[in-house]
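Revision sheet: structure tokens.
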Amino acid sequence: MQGDELRQKIKEVMVEELMLDYAAEEIGNKTAIFGAHGLGLDSVDALQLVVALEKHFGLKIGDSAAAKGILENVETIAAEIEKTAVSA
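Predicted:
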């Protein structure tokens, strides 16, 4: 799975696993996940998101520095999943 299909699935997982008050269609690929100008998620949500991404996509995020770059938005998450899939 990659491209638009992957990005849509990531949004659906986020809405379902984090119980967001958004529909998957309302989340843009470049919408910030954290902060007031984005979805407004916090550190607890980040932990849940990391667990959900590993469960659904097999994406392992090793440390908080890596997580900060990967968990910026749907696009950065998808890029990491695609990169991992290529190297697997």
